[in-house]
Amino acid sequence: MTAVTLDDWLARLASATGDRVTIDAALVAELAGALGAPEAELRATLDGLLDFHAGAAQVDPAVARAAVFGAISATVLRHLGASAVRPGVARLVFSLERAEVTAGGLVLHARVPGAAPQDRDTADVVARLERAGLARGGEVVLRPGGGPREIRVVCRPPVSGPEVFLSYAHDDPGHKETVRTLAELLVRNGIDADMDQWAGPGRQDWQAWATGLITKADFVLIIASPAYRRAGDGLAKTGDNRGVQAESATIRDLLHQDRRTWTARLLPVVLPGHEIDEIPLFLQPYCADRYHVTELSDAGIEELLRALTGQPRYVRPELGAVPHLPPRSLPRPPARS
Length: 337
What we know:
- This protein is α/β, with parallel strands linked by helices.
- It has helices at 6-13, 25-35, 39-52, 61-79, 87-93, 120-131, 173-188, 206-216, 226-232, 242-257, 259-265, 302-309, and strands at residues 4-5, 14-17, 20-23, 95-102, 105-111, 138-142, 150-156, 163-167, 192-194, 219-223, 266-270, 291-292.
- It folds into 2 domains: 4-156, no CATH class; 163-309, 3-Layer(aba) Sandwich (Rossmann fold).
- 40% of the residues lie in helices and 17% in strands.
- It has a 5-stranded mixed sheet.
């Protein structure tokens, strides 16, 4: 088979038959073989997805991705000797970003979070990642069972950039996708960004979740849109965009408590196709800075990256010496004869 990303593989994994979602057993066996993992174990993970989506017409790709990536992370760590690690723990210390299924096995692109919780379960895993040369970025090839198929793990260094939370309104599916693209761009550029679409499959208390991320983030990006403007200005109807109404209320309160601190931490962002007037008035859209994303590319987010990483476009030169400027005398008028 040619290389295929795991996201593509997941898209083919489940299909709706009548009113039921079914799992393609051949694809499960294919992935289990590439992992060197028991097929029954992987099948149990995927059956859990079906239970989670009971009555649904399809499996949520984000949920499927999180579950399968957790299972893969746990399997890789077991191959490194961490025999009892659970998928939930594995994701904390070994975060998969991309996986490719190839004829020879798997190619996994991962990172080790810089500040994984340190307890008895994670300490052994972190030590094994250190011994394998992956904790600070590196590459290792595993051959499960000594067979011909391999797992090549390419691990990038821990993210060292600032922690950033993206606060935005669900105006429409296109806007949600654009915001996720921005978040992915930031992560690829070393920014430890987080957003609701990456919150995982478990049941969330969204108010508590958002408050926790807002208060601990180095920066909160406020993504301008008509719905966010209405919510931020207190003009939204009671039942509209309840999540962003709660988030913007929390943000307004923090700004009111400590304007100096939170003025620096709250960064309004104007995406392509949006306007300054879509920034809520409490963020001072015209008399304070805002950050325009000219296009969804590395070049298009340069202004924002400079603000997040403290790298100005122009730097004031070093102060030079004051020159000595002797007084000038006016020429004497000619003497009268």
